[in-house]
């Protein structure tokens, strides 16, 4: 099992070999008659190299297995400085009598040929031209940096210095190493403790414990067989999410190549043309070729040898079963592909995933007839087909699009799929990517369709889970989704909006300002007050202590005027440098824009980054101690997070209190599709604390004046059904307006094909008549100025009774 490895580096576990007793190792001052370093190569992956990675090969000259448990190989630069350290690669298993043991080291970007399956793997980037390698009894790093000092260290079993290495055996190092040349001991494995005499340069010839070499040459040619071995793909996949052969070598696994990926995580998929009868055991698997481009084509009939590995894209995701360090024999080409499995509303279960009470589902037996994620897991690496699918998540900058294979599953009014509870997951969502560079994913918006059939291989990644790597794409049907324009407020209505403008700063391109400004002036019909989230300081991510954002706001308000809107004024409180989270250096904050021709802002001094605003009871109702002000800014609820901005406004002579919020993000939560079920929402704890602080402040306003008009709004980063919302509305203080809309309109954000709500507007009981609207201009579109849709509420401050939405 490997977690979050760089995809250009292949990590392989050690091979277990039956052990037997052996004598204690001697220092290299006495020649070794047992284990020796038989070959060293530091040119792997270099320009001009054939092999993709460095290696150290060990050999056993004795007649008994040599136990390597607790041993290591260690590397030191050829000309060590005072700060140079020995780099350690731990070993396990043993070297058979007369056998070899292969330690893979770091990979480079060059080369085309992988090593045979290594018996141990390190991460040391060895020099191609000069260095020292030691076989050591123990894993504690050596400290010697001269030949004499190392000769006195009895832990060293054998040592090879090459190139111009200072630390070596004998009178001088062995020379001649390069990107295409290793140094190797003679076939007799003789060790006279003179590197220059015992080893010589030549083409690298790595051999592992199984006798395999690069390209498959070896005893009985096990690395490049012409007849299938005993293991089939369904044996590798097994009946759970983790292969029963994880970490084991396999030989001659047969399959037809069904897809090839030449960029990113390079490799190809094979599928067995003769499946078994168990629906749990998958028939497809990914063959990971690392930095080497796959040397196969779709339709090739192949035999694959390598090591089975469970690759976890992150610690919380499910794994991808792979064959790594592959050796491939192409038997024939142009073969028919296995028929794809049809995924549709009838074949995908409505239940999402089994529960493990928050634990890992890895060991649970798959039940593909009951759970959608079990079905998808049983088809990992298998050809699948979907047809006439509706787009539920617009095409992304990464050339991905989300579709649903269940047209009647929680549809929104505009063609998306609504996410409405933690327990009612949308099982028909799937991400589509293209394996055909000549036919990329089309630019699609929510509600469009991929008409006809889309066929490809089912894969998994950390960004959304199961996805279809398409080899054949359906055609785009454009359903002409339009950006909404809300109505203009009437003269007696105060219009208040919230808009997350996605890290806007004065260094952004004018086009971003213009598009966001049109959203305010045209689509929102110029609200009287706009609460903005994600306004950064004037130089954005430049981290030089700047905290003001007036240049950013001037560009934005000027762009609004140019788009036909009013000349807005603004109010904000600059954060302490680096204290409010968000992009490092950006000093993100909440800001109020307001139209002074329509509404007055009550400026009252005393508000700053660390002073808490309070409610002040007066004969005429409640006022703020400072305006603008911040709610409990020193509370630990707001550590490294945006503090709420509170402002006192007057409209038609009536006070209105507006609270702009941007709660902590959902980063760190376990994914819906992950290995832990049910997923832990670790970020929720902080948002509940933040919601409680805002709720407490609103209660203080209402305690001073129960009819106070309070509008709380912003990006709360949580759902209407969340504990965060329960804490914010506790005691009947605030009414969430998103729940007043028809259910199929309750969203303002689209994530992984789910239409959901993170942004909210809430009102106190003193706001008696309102008209509320989510204005869809961004989240459903491939071309978007922000990933959030704005919202607006129009309130009648003089309404005598409870109104409607």
What do these coordinates show?
With 805 residues, the protein is mostly beta strands. 9% of the residues lie in helices and 30% in strands. The strands form 9 sheets. Strands 30, 33, 34, 35, 36, 37 and 40 form a 7-stranded mixed β-sheet that branches. The chain has a 6-stranded mixed β-sheet with strand order 9-8-3-2-12-13. Strands 28-29-27-26-42-41 form a 6-stranded mixed β-sheet, with helices on one face. It is elongated. The two termini are 54 Å apart. The N terminus is likely disordered.
List the SSEs and their pairings.
Blueprint: E1 2-3, E2 35-41, E3 53-60, E4 66-67, E5 72-77, E6 87-90, E7 94-95, E8 100-107, E9 120-121, E10 131-136, H1 147-151, E11 156-162, E12 182-185, H2 195-198, E13 199-202, H3 233-237, E14 249-261, E15 267-271, E16 284-288, E17 301-312, E18 320-332, E19 341-342, H4 372-378, E20 383-393, E21 401-404, E22 429-434, E23 449-461, E24 465-472, E25 475-477, E26 493-504, H5 510-523, E27 529-535, H6 550-562, E28 569-571, E29 589-594, E30 600-601, E31 615-618, E32 621-624, E33 629-630, E34 645-651, E35 654-662, H7 684-704, E36 710-715, H8 723-729, E37 735-736, E38 749-751, E39 754-756, E40 759-763, E41 770-774, E42 791-796
Parallel strand pairs: 1-17, 8-9, 16-18, 19-20, 22-24, 26-27, 35-36
Antiparallel strand pairs: 2-3, 2-12, 3-8, 4-7, 5-6, 5-10, 10-11, 12-13, 14-15, 14-17, 15-16, 17-18, 20-21, 20-23, 21-22, 23-24, 23-25, 26-42, 27-29, 28-29, 30-34, 31-32, 33-34, 34-35, 36-40, 37-40, 38-39, 41-42
């Amino acid at each position: 099992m490997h977690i979050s490895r760089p995809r250009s580096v292949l990590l392989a576990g050690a091979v277990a070999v039956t052990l037997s007793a052996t004598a204690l190792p001697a220092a290299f001052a006495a020649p070794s008659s047992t284990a020796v370093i038989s070959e060293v190569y530091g040119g792997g992956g270099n320009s001009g190299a054939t092999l993709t990675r460095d290696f150290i090969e060990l050999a056993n000259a004795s007649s008994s297995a040599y136990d390597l448990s607790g041993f290591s190989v260690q590397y030191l630069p050829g000309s060590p400085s005072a700060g140079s350290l020995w780099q350690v690669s731990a070993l396990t298993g043993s070297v058979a009598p007369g056998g070899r043991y292969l330690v893979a080291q770091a990979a480079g970007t060059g080369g085309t040929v992988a090593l045979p399956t290594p018996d141990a793997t390190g991460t040391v980037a060895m020099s191609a031209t000069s260095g020292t390698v030691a076989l050591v009894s123990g894993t504690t790093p050596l400290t010697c940096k001269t030949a004499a000092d190392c000769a006195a260290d009895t832990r060293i079993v054998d040592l090879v210095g090459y190139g111009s290495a200072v630390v070596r055996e004998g009178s001088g190092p062995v020379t001649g190493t390069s990107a295409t040349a290793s140094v190797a001991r003679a076939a007799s494995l003789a060790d006279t403790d003179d590197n220059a005499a015992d080893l010589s340069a030549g083409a690298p010839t790595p051999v592992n414990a199984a006798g395999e070499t690069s390209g498959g040459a070896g005893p009985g040619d096990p690395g490049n067989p012409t007849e299938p071995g005993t293991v089939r793909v369904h044996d590798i996949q097994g009946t759970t999410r983790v292969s029963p052969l994880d970490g084991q070598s396999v030989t001659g696994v047969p399959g037809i190549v069904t897809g090839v990926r030449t960029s990113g995580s390079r490799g190809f998929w094979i599928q067995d043309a003769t499946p078994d009868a168990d629906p749990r055991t998958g028939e497809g698997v990914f063959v990971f070729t690392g930095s080497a481009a796959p040397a196969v084509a779709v339709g090739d009939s192949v035999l694959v040898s390598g090591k089975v590995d469970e690759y976890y894209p992150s610690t919380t995701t499910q794994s991808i079963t792979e064959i790594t360090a592959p050796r491939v024999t192409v038997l024939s080409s142009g073969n028919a592909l296995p028929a794809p499995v049809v995924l549709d509303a009838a074949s995908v279960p409505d239940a999402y995933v089994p529960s493990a009470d928050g634990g890992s589902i890895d060991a649970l037996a798959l039940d593909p007839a009951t759970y959608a994620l079990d079905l998808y897991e049983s088809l990992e690496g298998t050809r699948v087909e979907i047809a006439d699918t509706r787009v539920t998540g617009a095409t992304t900058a990464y050339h991905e699009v989300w579709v649903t294979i269940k047209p009647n599953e929680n549809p929104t009014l505009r063609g998306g799929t609504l996410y409405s509870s933690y327990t009612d997951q949308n099982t028909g969502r799937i991400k589509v990517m293209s394996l055909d560079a000549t036919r990329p994913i089309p630019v699609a918006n929510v509600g469009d369709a991929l008409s006809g059939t889309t066929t490809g291989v089912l894969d998994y990644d950390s960004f959304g889970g199961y996805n279809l790597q398409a080899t054949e794409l359906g055609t785009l049907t454009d359903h002409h989704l339009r950006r909404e324009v809300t109505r203009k407020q009437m003269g007696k209505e105060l219009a208040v909006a919230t808009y997350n403008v996605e890290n806007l700063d004065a260094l952004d391109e004018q086009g971003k300002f213009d598009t966001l400004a049109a959203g305010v002036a045209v689509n929102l019909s110029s609200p009287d007050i706009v609460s903005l989230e994600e306004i950064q300081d004037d130089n954005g991510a430049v981290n030089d202590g700047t905290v003001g954002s007036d240049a950013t706001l001037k560009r934005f308000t000027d762009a609004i005027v140019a788009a036909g809107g009013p000349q807005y004024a603004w109010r904000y409180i600059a954060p302490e440098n680096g204290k409010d989270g968000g992009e490092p250096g950006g000093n993100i904050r909440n800001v109020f824009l307001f139209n002074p021709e329509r509404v007055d802002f009550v400026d009252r001094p005393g508000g700053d980054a660390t002073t808490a605003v309070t409610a002040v009871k007066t004969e005429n109702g409640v006022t703020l101690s400072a305006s603008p002000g911040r709610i409990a800014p020193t509370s630990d609820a707001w550590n490294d997070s945006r503090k709420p901005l509170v402002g006192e406004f007057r409209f038609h002579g009536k006070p209105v209190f507006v609270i702009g919020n941007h709660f902590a993000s959902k980063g760190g939560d376990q994914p819906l599709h992950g290995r832990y079920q049910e997923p832990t929402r670790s970020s929720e704890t902080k948002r509940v604390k933040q919601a409680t602080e805002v709720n407490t402040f609103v209660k203080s306003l209402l305690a001073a004046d129960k009819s106070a008009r309070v509008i709380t709004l912003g990006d709360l980063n949580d759902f209407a059904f969340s504990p965060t919302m329960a804490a914010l509305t506790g005691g009947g203080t605030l009414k969430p307006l998103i729940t007043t809309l028809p259910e199929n309109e309750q969203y303002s954000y689209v994530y992984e094909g789910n239409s959901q709500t993170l942004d909210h507007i809430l009102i106190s009981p003193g706001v008696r008549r309102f008209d509320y609207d989510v204005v869809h201009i961004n989240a459903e579109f491939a071309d978007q100025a922000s990933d959030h849709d704005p919202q607006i509420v129009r309130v009648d401050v003089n309404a005598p009774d409870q109104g409607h939405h």
